[in-house]
Amino acid sequence: MRPDPRRAPASPARPAARRILTLLSVAFLVPSVLPLSFRAQAADLTPQQQVEGRLMCFCGCSDLTVRVCTCGTADSIRQEIASRLGNGETPDQVVAAFVAQHGEQMRSAPTKSGFDLVAWVTPFLVLFLAGAALVVVVRRWGSVRTSPASPGAPPAMDLHAPTPAEERARERVRRELRERR
């Protein structure tokens, strides 16, 4: 199969832009698939463990969930969770009771509603906008380097050719160097 002479040659920036778009699409698809595997793991947890993972320990020794922290405060929180669940409260009711008692900082993750939704959406939005800006910049850089001169347009200035002022300065330096010998 012979190449079509009427068709313009492919720009070297095009494959780079395609690679970037592919990487960006993979970067956005992987996080959307990962939560599915985490949901399967969360289904294997007992209600006690699910509540412990949703609450932060307020002991002050570290920023850990109640499920992971090993201090005495976490032990007392775990006992209270067990007694609440034993009394027939649902995991959501237990979390709501702790949040009502200790405040929103008790949650290990922001809720997915209201103003807290901004905390979930903003990082992905920033990544998307940065990726889009990067694609635009790469395409512009590629089109500037490879754009053929249109008829009637002034010739492109060679960045390595000296200007008349630079040429005069070079001549003056050469003349001064010759005179000092």
Word description of this protein:
- With 181 residues, this protein is mostly helical.
- 63% of the residues lie in helices and 0% in strands.
- It is built from six helices and no strands.
- Helix 2 crosses helix 3 (72-86) and helix 2 (47-54) runs parallel beside helix 4 (91-102).
- The radius of gyration is 32 Å and the shape is elongated.
- The termini are far apart.
- The mean pLDDT is 76.
The portion of residues forming beta strands comes to under 5%
Q: State the shape.
A: elongated
Counted by DSSP, the helix tally is 6
Helix content: 55-70%
Please tally the β strands and state the result. Answer: 0
SSE order, one letter for each helix or strand: HHHHHH
Q: Structural class of the secondary structure composition?
A: mainly alpha
What is the radius of gyration computed over CA atoms, rounded to a whole number of angstroms? 32 Å
Query: Unreliable segments (pLDDT under 50, ≥5 consecutive)?
Result: none
Distance from N terminus to C terminus (CA atoms, Å) equals 66 Å
- What's the story with the biggest beta sheet? none
Average pLDDT level: 76
Topology:
Blueprint: H1 13-43, H2 47-54, H3 72-86, H4 91-102, H5 116-146, H6 164-180
Helix pairs in contact: 1-5, 2-3, 2-4
Summary keywords:
6 helices; single chain; mainly alpha; 181 residues
Short recap of the structure:
By secondary structure, the protein is mainly α. It is 63% helix and 0% strand.
